Amino acid sequence: PWGQRELLLRDPDGHVLCFGGDLTGEWPSKLVTVCPEWTVSDPLASGEFLRHALGFPIVDTWGDPPAYAIARREGATLHLRRATAPEQVRGNAGAGVWDAYVRCTGVDELAAELQCRGVPLERGPEDRPYGMREFDVLDPDGYVLCFGEDVGGDD
Fold it and tell me: What is the largest CA-CA distance in the chain?
């Protein structure tokens, strides 16, 4: 329904990777992006968090009530699918693992913007030994979103 031809692949652990091709002509033909899909308790509430707290200006929803949403901010895109059971919502809060990593420029300014919106930072901004400056935030379902900027460093 969103003008995309898709191929789904499942790894041995049950994770699904979706390859999609644009059928609308909106995206360049050689464009490659990664768009994580989170299973959330409420796509509308999660989309509103992304819009108002994290500054994602575009949040499209499908269904009434929304069963799916896609949030976009500049080059970052997150897909949000409504869980059919509470155990499907499996954010990585507390596990020390990210659910999505967004590369950006001006990471300190972005962190300050989010803090002005009242978003608590879970970590950072801090320089990492692999040449990135990063900070983490949590969404209401416990998904960990890391924003990172390349600042150089040891390879």
Answer: 50
Q: Which residues contact 140 (CB under 8 A, 6 or more apart)?
A: 41, 45, 46, 49
Tell me the three state secondary structure of residue 113: helix
The strand pair at 100-103 and 144-150 is best described as parallel
Separation between Cα atoms, residue 37 and residue 149, nearest integer Å? 22
pLDDT in tens, 42-86: 999 999 999 999 998 888 888 899 899 999 988 788 889 999 999
- Contact assessment for residue 1 and residue 62, using Cβ atoms and an 8 Å cutoff: yes
Q: Is 74 helix (H, G, I), strand (E, B) or coil?
A: coil
Q: Give the C-alpha separation, 149 to 155, whole Å.
A: 15
